[in-house]
Every structure is written in structure tokens, then in C-alpha cells.
Amino acid sequence: MTTKRFAIAICIAIVAVGAWLLWPAPSPKPFNVLLITMDTTRADHLGCYGNEIISTPHIDALAKQGTLYQNAFTPVPITLPSHTSMMSGTYPVFHGVRENAGFYVPDEMDMLAEILDDNGYDTAAFVGAFPLDSQTGIDQGFDLYDDNYASRFDRHPKLQRFYDERPAADVARGAMAWIDDRDQAPFFLWTHFFDPHHPLLPPPRYRDQYPTDPYLAEIASVDEAIGQILARLEARGMLDSTLVILTADHGEGRGEHGEETHALLLYSSTLRVPLIVNDPRHRQPGNEPRVVNAPVSNLDIFSTVLDRLNMPIPDVNQGTPLPDSDRYADPEREILSETMFGRLIYGWSPLHRLTAGTEVHIRGPSQRLFDRANDPGELTDLSSTHAHKLNRISEQLSNARGAFAEGGHEFASAPVTPETIARLAALGYIGVSTAPAELSDEVDPTRADPLAMMKVFDYQQEAQSLAEEGQLELAIPLLRKAEKIDPQNPAVLLTLAQSLLSRADQKAAFDVLIQLLKAQPENVRAHLLLAQYHRSREEYEQAMELMRNAVELDSEDLATRLMLAHLEEDAARPDLAETTYRDLIERDPTHVLALNGLATLKYRSGASEEAVGLLNDTLNRQPYYAPAYLNLGVIHFDQGQYDRALRLARRALAVAPGYRNARELERRSMAALTRATADSD
Ligand SMILES: [Zn+2]
Fold first, then answer.
1. What is the pTM of this model?
2. Are residues 170 and 102 in the same domain?
3. Which of 187, 194, 393, 412 is a Cys-bridge partner for 128, taking CB atoms 3.0 to 4.6 Å apart?
4. For the chain, which residues score pLDDT lower than 70?
5. Which of 378, 405, 432 is a domain's end point?
6. How far is the CA of 341 from the centre of ligand 1 (A)?
């Protein structure tokens, strides 16, 4: 430890002396950091940003005594790349994480949690959904990284297979339990709320409050969860020594510019995010937030935290500590943004954008120029009437990209796995279909312009959600229409194959997949779907062979192996499944799904003691993983230890109150205990 701790102690002592000179009551308490990220949240849908329909009292209160940034833009409207920018202070063109599926945060990057951890901080993250799973490497530096999404498992049929999202209340519950365990050391806590992202499934109370707009209902439910966390910090006397920063990873189109969701285009509807800094040492005395109008970015959070904690900011940082007022801000600040979503998923051109002061330039196969001062909706394209301006800002954009790319990580790609793709698909994403290593991130005029391809995008997206709802008869004609406009589009063909498989139109699906694999032999999702085809015909050998090929294509990513293990279990090959599980655990001893899977396998084969050992191991690594409590409880129940089973069922419910199987175990254990008491009387 001690050199670093000692260095910190000295650092704090110096700060304290400084503080003593300036303020009468220096705080001897450690300085904590709470970072709140709301997924998919538009700034203009919060009360403190002027929205008059929604009620967000807790976020508004944070803003009132803090600083609110009116013009904060994300470098990229996609969850994992955006969070990587916030946590590393660098642009995607530098850190190399360009999409959710298929990308990995480079190990050699110094992430905010790593720096704070090295400086004696306790670090924990509670994330709400799969795009931020620990397997992406965004967990670097966190002592505890809670990415278990089990609690929606039983509630919503749509999510049942993948249980990829957990509601705000559950994220808050985990965070509050962790806060309760804090003692002396300062902490860095990150909570991520996925609720405003599709699918929109607000809690009934909020659904009733906003009956026509589930998006607002989800945001309001997150506000309540934030209020609970802040109240817990207050109750523990920690709020006055905690720097709170709230932001979003990106906004949501909500129909603007023809875009319903986010990721494909680069308008402010999806790039502008809320950003609030609440530093208790600089509390705003009045009842109105300090407002900064100059452009800033959520990637500035990295340097802001280090700056406020008086820690050195690494040279790689590409952001600026957030100014407390416009007096110290750069009104001409340039913010770079990009999306490679269209390139990676649909084979279209990448898009780039520069926000420079109030000017906006979007570069694709066609050009756009907007003046946000007079046209905040970015509706009037000035590119043909203001050629001189366009040339200047276009050059600025190129220069910025060149400068920020220097010394960066090319493509931080990890192989994409079928399970990753399937889980992301459950959230409305579809996976990467081309090996990222072969891609260029430059605008490519020979490829389709995403702005001109909105029809194909809409057909494919609409078909995908129809398919998820089982309306295949409506989905398939839409996909055939999209195929007509863009016949080689891998996303269209994959969704088509998936829909045909679901309709048990096996022959047609088989033809589409073989056609796709001929063009793209390394398309992992085509492997997965073809394996599903064979699985449905109980041709397990062929299915396992395809998955083994997929594992070979994806040697680094463990989720492929997990999928293979599940298939081996289906094929009644527990011996193979055990080998695959053990291989997984050897590669990642903290892989709770593999530990839990192996435990279940061992228990079924009669090795209950080993199963108990594995489950305890799981819980040591992830004390908030409800299925492990449940499985332990089931084993004790089977052994007639009903009181222990009851306790474990309640532990599972404490973590995941909606967990139906745990509720059932609780009921059965209580019934068994009642019977046992009656028998002994
Ligand atoms: Zn997101």
C-alpha cells in the first residue's frame, strides 16, 4: 500500500491547509465521488433543463446547488463507446471502442476507476444492462463490478431469455447496500440506469403517471432511485463529502430527423446530454443552478474528477476539466462526434461531426452545416449557401480527428460472440457483421449514406421488433422490401433468417444463411443461427461443430464458450459441458454464469457438496447475484434444511424482489417448516 496512501495523506494535508486559509471550517472527511449515468436520456426531458411535463425533483435539486451544462455533447451516441470516453477522457478515435458488440476497452488504458483505486479509493459499479457487462473491459479498476441483471428475469416475457436489464430501483438497492458497508476510505461509486432505453417497461406507478409516454415514465423512475441513493448518503453523513456528477451516454431521436432511437445519425437529438456537477465545497447558495452555455462534453468528466480531487491528469486526456462558469469556458470549444454504427451493422458509410461553438458540421457521403444559435433543431442545412464556412469547419473537423487519433488504439475489437449478439438483440441492437479489424473509420463516398438509407433502417428495425413480438407474418414482408433496396445488407439478411427460423420456415432460412456465409464465411451470427437450425432438428453434432467453429473465430470471448456449454447440456453431454465450464472458469475465475452453470450441472449429477462449494465461491465473488442464493436454497431444501432454504430464498429476494422462483422457494420452505412443526407437536 503505503507509499501511495502516504502520498495521498500528504496531498490531503496540503489541501486542508489551503482550505483552512480560505474557509473557516475545513472538512477532514474523505472526498468521495458518485458518478450517475442515465442511459438514453435527453437533456430536454429533465425538469432542470426546462421540461414542464416531467417531474424530476431529485435531479433538479442536484442542479440547483450545482453547475448545469446547457450544451454538453457526447462523442458517440452508443452506450459502451460513450462510457469508455467518460471513463478514459479520450475520443473513440483514440480508445478504439466504436460499438457495443465486438469491442473491448484496451487493458493498457488508464481508466478513472483504476487511477482512483491506485490512490486508495474503494471502487464499485452497479450497472443496469448488458452493453456494460464486465466482459467489455469497462470494469477495469472496480473492486466490485455488479453487472447482474437477474431481477427482471421473471417479470417480462420479452426479457426472460436474456434478463439483460434491471430496473433503477434494483440498481439503487445494490448501491445503497454498498454505501452501508463503507467505512474510512474514500470511495468512487458509479451507478448506471438503463431504464430510459428500449424496451420501455416503467413501473406501474410511473406508467399511470405518464400514460401516453413510457419514456418519461422511465426517466421519472430513475429520478426516484437517484433520490434514494442521495438520501442514503445524507443519512450516513457522507453527502457533504461527495462530489456528485450526473450525465447520460447519449440522447434519443424520438422521431426527430426520422430517427426513433439512437446510434445511426449524429444530430443533437441523440448527442446532447444532461450534465450536472454538484460539488458540496462549491455549493450554489441560491435556488437556481449555475449555468454554463459553452459547449462541453461528457468525456470531460474524467479530467474533472481528477482535477477536483487534486490528482494529476494523465497526458493522454483529451477533455478539459469542466469550468464552473462561462467566464472560464471556451465559447468556441470543438467537440468531435462519430458513429460507425451504420458501417458496422449495415455496411454503410461512417458519419463524423464537429460541434464548434454554435456551428455544427455533419460529414458523410453528403455534407450538412447548421447554426445552433438560430436553429437548435438542426433543420436548416446551410452547406450549399455557406460554402466558405463549410470548407473552414470541414478542415477543422479533419484536423481534430487527426490530432485526437494520434497515438491511439486502432480498433479495440474483441471477437463478437453469438451470445453477445443474441443478448444485445434482445435490447434492440444487432451485432457486428464484419470483422472490425478490416474496417476503415473514414467517410466512404462509395458506400451508402445513412441519411439516405433511413427506409432500410426503419424496415429492418420495425421488422425486428415485430419479430420479437412474434408477428412474423408482418416482419418478413418488410424485410423482403428492405432486401430489394439493399440486397447485400447483412443486418437485413440476418433478421430475415432469424424470422424464417422462428416461423419454422427452415428451408428458406437455411438458404438465406448459406448465401450469407458464402459471402461472409466469418459471420459469427450466421454460425449461431445455422447452429439453431440444426438444434431445432435435433442435429446436435452439426450444431456443436458450428459453435466450436464460432469459438475458434472468437477465441478471446468467453460468452461463446458459455453458449457452447449450454448446447452441450442440451445434447445430453454433461462431460463435454463440464470441460467447457471448467475451461471458462480457468480463463475467468470470476465468471459467475459459468460457476453457477457448473454448480447446477454438478448438483444434477449428484455431487451436491461440490455444487455448494461452487455456489459459495460465486457469492464470495458477487454477493448480489440472486440466482446463486436461489440455487443454494434449493439444495438445502432438497436436503430437508428448510430454515436455511428459507433464509437463502429471502437473501435472493432482498437482491431481486421480483424473482418469482425465489418467491416460490420461500413459499415452499415456509409450508415445509409449518408441516414439520405440526408433525413434532
Ligand atoms: Zn446507451
1. 0.76
2. yes
3. 194
4. 1-30, 149-164, 410-438, 554-557, 559, 681
5. 405
6. 13
